[in-house]
Amino acid sequence: MKSKSSFCAALLAAALAISPLACIAGGVSLGATRVIYPAGNKQVSLNIANSGDKERYLVNSWISNGATDEKEKNFIVTPPLFVSEPKSENNLRLMYIGAPLPTDRESLFWVNVKAIPSVDKDKIQGKNVLQLAILSRIKLFVRPKTLSMQPEEAPSQLKFSLAGKMLTIENPTPYYITLVKMKLGDKALDSTMVAPMSKASVAADAQGSLTFQTVNDYGSLTPAQTQNLR
């Protein structure tokens, strides 16, 4: 268990924010790396599994706002707090109870899940103990049901322009698009997420063709695309 927990913690520290992990701590994992919430639905579910043989975890979950990162009062998470037993599975129910969101584009929120390992009080009595709580965050997209295109069509609509040492990415679609494994010529660029009907810029001190991949609804990478920049 120690090696597995250490491996998960190391991955969490090294991972990009746009590529969240299913692993939370030890044998605890989420059933998805992102959640799509169809607007108008009463709720969606997120599975949490504990594959460990012995460890119990106190699991605390909440939704935060994509813009301010503050706790979102318009979402209810049930149960917000529970004990994850060894070799068990639980379902979180996520319910939006707020005012209608924009109907022409996705809205972004974050699902936060914190796992706190249990402690045997008899074994630690009289000792100094450092207890670590591991927090995992995955994206939650509230998606209107009548958007102008399918999500798999969105990456092909991106527009790119290079000025000086900055690459600007324009997203005219109603979807959030995450670009990863970007390279301009032979130089790797930072990954980024572009909001619907918005622009984002990344440092690009290079020349040549741009290659990139995007992340789909299932957390998988799409085939690489190439753009010739002038």
UniProtKB/TrEMBL annotation:
Its main location: periplasm. InterPro entries: Ig-like_fold (IPR013783), PapD-like_sf (IPR008962), Periplasmic_pilus_chap (IPR050643), Pili_assmbl_chap_C_dom_sf (IPR036316), Pili_assmbl_chaperone_bac (IPR001829), Pili_assmbl_chaperone_C (IPR016148), Pili_assmbl_chaperone_CS (IPR018046), Pili_assmbl_chaperone_N (IPR016147). The lineage of its organism: Bacteria, Pseudomonadati, Pseudomonadota, Gammaproteobacteria, Pseudomonadales. Keywords: Chaperone, Fimbrium biogenesis, Periplasm, Signal. Belongs to the periplasmic pilus chaperone family. It is found in: Periplasm. Pfam families: PapD_C, PapD_N. Residues 169-221 form the Pili assembly chaperone C-terminal domain. Residues 27-147 form the Pili assembly chaperone N-terminal domain. This is Fimbria/pilus periplasmic chaperone.
